[in-house]
Amino acid sequence: MISRITTVEMHTGGEPLRIITDGVPVPDGRTLLEKRAFLRDYADHYRQFLMFEPRGHRDMYGALLVPADHPDADLAVIFLHNEGYSTMCGHAIIALGRYALDYGLVVKNTEETKVNIQCPCGLVTAYVKTEDGVTGAVRFESVPAFAVALGTYVETPDYGPVEIDIGYGGAFYALLDAATIGLDVRRSTTADLVRAATQISEAVKKQIPITHPEAEDLGYLYGTILTDGGDGATGAASANICVFADAQVDRSPTGSGVTARLAVAAARKTAQAGEIYQFESVTGSIFTGKIMRATKVGPYNAVTVEVAGQAYYCGTAEFTAEDGDTLAGGFLLR
């Protein structure tokens, strides 16, 4: 049923973003969450076609731009990954900020341009720098972020009781210092880190109910972030690895993860508004984060966080399916 899909390929800190430019019909639905649900329930073959092999891989990430229903939005996006459809993605926002200007979705200003992007978690405001007409670094202010659990425990098969925090930065994450389970995010193998993070995510999903006070569709654990135990204070970037969806590894420091980390730090009173913190990914790429303002989400004390990074173009693509190809729909190997 798929004849031709075109994309623009970008990456932020090494994390890919496949932006779909043509070939996928606009999903049915009045709101963005309804469109996301329609794509998930009735048109998931497009995600599998683009994210899975032979056109993608287990760690591919995508973005489908759709008409916005938020009155202040310049564009709206549905995020795609190996397991389904996420609620927020910071590395994608950074890439889409540049894309929106370079492809004429928003009129480019001389030095910095504001781009309002409606995500499933809410409206995210990005600011794209321009120098000599060329777009560059992007910063964005998150949706309100908060901690839902501090110092809680889950039982795991291989690590026993594990102490975690749970923070929301547009998506929910379990957070912990890798050293508490005998690992090091800079020295342990990626396979060992992924195995541990996946096991912890599975334990949290079984043992801790997670709900969002404003939207039922947002209430689930997206992944686990293992850190080096640092706070990311200026001059000493804190390393982390984010494992989300179906054991998918983020190559970037994870924009929504940085937001969740700072929301938890704010709840613990170990991070101050206005100060800049640095976070490093498995590729060595850096995002900065800054707590902007205090707010509330239901019963939770919350903050908004500004995250900044740089995205780059890597190409364009045209994907097709040939008659008789039994693997054309996509597949994944572990």
The CATH topology label of the largest domain is Diaminopimelate Epimerase, Chain A, domain 1
Indicate the low-confidence ranges by residue numbers.
none
Describe the largest sheet: 8 strands, mixed, barrel
Number of beta-strand segments? 17
The CATH homologous superfamily of the largest domain is termed: Diaminopimelate Epimerase, Chain A, domain 1
Mean pLDDT level? 97
Query: What is the percentage of strand-forming residues?
Result: 35-45%
First-residue to last-residue Cα separation: 27 Å
The CATH architecture of the largest domain: Roll
Radius of gyration: 19 Å
Task: Count the DSSP helices.
Answer: 5
- What strand order characterises the main sheet? 8-9-10-11-12-14-15-16
Which CATH top level class of the largest domain fits? Alpha Beta
Domain count: 2
Helix content: 10-25%
**Shape summary:** globular
Going by helix content, strand content and strand pairing, the class is alpha+beta
Could you spell the SSE succession in H and E letters? EEHHEEHEEEEEEHEEEHEEEE
What would your notes on this structure say?
It is a single chain. The protein folds into two domains: 5-138 and 313-318, Diaminopimelate Epimerase, Chain A, domain 1; 145-308, Roll (Diaminopimelate Epimerase, Chain A, domain 1), CATH 3.10.310. Helices cover 19% and strands 40% of the residues. The chain has five helices and 17 strands. It has an eight-stranded mixed β-barrel with strand order 8-9-10-11-12-14-15-16.
